[in-house]
Write a structure and sequence with these properties.
The protein has 140 residues and is α+β, with helices and mostly antiparallel strands. The protein has four helices and four strands, in the order E-E-H-E-E-H-H-H. It has a four-stranded antiparallel sheet, covered by helices on one side.
Length: 140
Amino acid sequence: MIKLNGVFKYYSAGSVRTYVLRDLDVEIKEGEFVTIMGPSGSGKSTLLHILGMLDDPSDGEYYFLEQAVHKLGEKQRAELHKNYLGFVFQSYHLIDELTVYENLETPLLYKKIKGDERKSMVCDILDRFQIVGKKDLFPN
C-alpha cells in the first residue's frame, strides 16, 4: 500500500546540503499499524509530510496504492490525498473563524458529500467524541 525506495530529503543553503532523511526504505502493507518514533530532529515530521503528500522527497521513489506518487502531478497527488489520506496536525490547524461543527464539516464539503449525509457524519463524530455540546463553539 505504501512503499518508499531510497528516499532522501535535504535542504540546500548555497553548496551545503543538510540531510533530514537519507536513503530511507519503508514498506507498509494494507491493515498494518506503524509507529514512527525517534528523538527530536530525527525526521519524523518530515517523513509524515512526505507520506501525507504535503511535501516531496528530494530524491527517491514513493508508491501509494501501487501508484508512483513521485511521478504524479500536483492535481493527481491532491486527488489521492483528498480521497485516501487524513492528517491530524500536532497543532490541529483548525480554522479560528469556524465553529467546531464547521471545522468538522469543511473536509466533507471538499469531497462534495451531500448535505444530509454530511450532517449525519458530523453529528456522528460529535457524538462519538462526546462533544455535541461544543459544536457551536470556536476552536480557541
